[in-house]
Amino acid sequence: MKKIYTLFFLLFSTIAFANGEGEIDTGITSWMLTSTTLVLLMIPGLAMFYGGLVRTKNVLGTMMHSFAAMGIMTILWVLVGYSMSFGSNVLGGWFGWNPDYFLLKGIDSSIVDGIPEYVFAMFQGKFAIITPAIIAGAFAERVSFKGYSLFIALWGILIYNPLCHWVWASDGFILNLGADGAIDFAGGTVVHISAGVSGLVAAIYLGARKQFPHLPMQPNNLVMTMIGAGLLWVGWFGFNAGSSINSGLATAQALTVTQIAAAAGAIAWALIEGIHQGKATALGFASGILSGLVAITPAAGVVQPVGAIVLGILASGICYYGITLKNKLGYDDTLDAFGIHGLGGIVGAIFLVFFIRESWMEDAAASVGGAWTMIDQLGIQLLAIVIAIAYAAVGTLIILFIVNKITPIRASNAAELKGLDSSYHGEKGYGMINPS
């Protein structure tokens, strides 16, 4: 009788496996669900970080840029974004397409690498949300809400989706450069360089805020900014460690170096400020956190802790200098989208080469059937960076021109002086009534 039960059990298991049941790895799926939630947490974290840095009259309008991206980019991702990013090459590989991915209609019961494909699609969709939200920091306090909404919709379709396809899709041409493609574990080129460069182009195109830099424009709430930085730090574990699309050694490696790089960046920035200005500011500490996190993002899958420390320190130093240079050059990157994300992403994508694990280099050499050196990989990294910068810069300029023909993307003089909160949302961020 026991043998009969065993036979039925094996038969049932075989049938279930053939029907697609039982293929889900619950451990990996649980971690990826958690990672997806953590990345989503970064977006209200970014809203708080940015919202605290602007003037009181623009706090809600600035936070709305992040929240609007959560709505707009989610719908676009479900409609065409996932298909354009992870479908098969079309138009010479400019982007991908898979009709089954339209409205996610063909993945209802799909299991990929041990997880429901829905989970992978939603995880990747969070990256598509936060990238244009980062851009908004470059032109905060002077953009119309309608113009911004149209801009990020077009930017997501025409800039983010193709870049995502090139770097992360199996047939993307950047992924297939050299031995093992350009290294971008969690979005150095796709997210941070593209957002930073696009933000810089938009900031210059729109021009500076009224009375900048002559009128002091102090942050309205640095406490909120610090809380936002903390949420970003926590969420970044999903951003980086989740990009392993696994729950194993690579996940632990990515999580570890993420923590280390953030800490190294924060300490380095505080030391630089202390030496240069005589005081270590809270805003500087938060900026150092982000610099370290941005720099480790492309490198999280290939570097060890010593590399994370060096990348965090390098990113803080270069981003600090970049922001200082911005003030000298006079362009108005309001919240340093390029100064932190653009420069930090470039630092990470380049200098990771000098800290790659030997095992990764050995695998790369095996894939080409010969020697593969750090110089070889450096060439691939530089090529990917140049492609991302050029595509994001030119594409963003074209999109800004198109949007401006449809609706003014810059806020009117009256709206800017009055504030985005009242002009575009009819509200005030702080509604306290002064006692009579």
Please provide a brief summary of the model.
With 436 residues, the chain is mostly helical.
Which structural traits does this protein have?
436 residues; Ammonium transporter fold; two-stranded antiparallel sheet; 2% strand; disordered N terminus
Secondary structure layout:
Blueprint: H1 2-18, H2 26-53, H3 59-86, E1 88-90, E2 95-97, E3 111-112, E4 115-116, H4 117-135, H5 145-168, H6 188-206, H7 222-241, H8 249-277, H9 282-296, H10 305-329, H11 337-351, H12 358-368, H13 374-406, H14 413-418, H15 420-425
Antiparallel strand pairs: 1-2, 3-4
Helix pairs in contact: 2-3, 2-4, 2-7, 3-4, 3-5, 4-5, 4-6, 5-6, 5-13, 6-11, 6-13, 7-8, 7-9, 8-9, 8-10, 9-10, 9-11, 10-11, 11-13
Description:
- Strand 1 (88-90) and strand 2 (95-97) form a beta hairpin.
- The protein has a two-stranded antiparallel sheet. The chain has a two-stranded antiparallel ribbon with strand order 3-4.
- Helix content is 68%, strand content 2%.
- The chain has helices spanning 2-18, 26-53, 59-86, 117-135, 145-168, 188-206, 222-241, 249-277, 282-296, 305-329, 337-351, 358-368, 374-406, 413-418, 420-425; strands at residues 88-90, 95-97, 111-112, 115-116.
- It is globular, with a radius of gyration of 23 Å.
- It has a single domain, classed as Ammonium transporter AmtB like domains (Ammonium transporter fold, Orthogonal Bundle), CATH 1.10.3430.10.
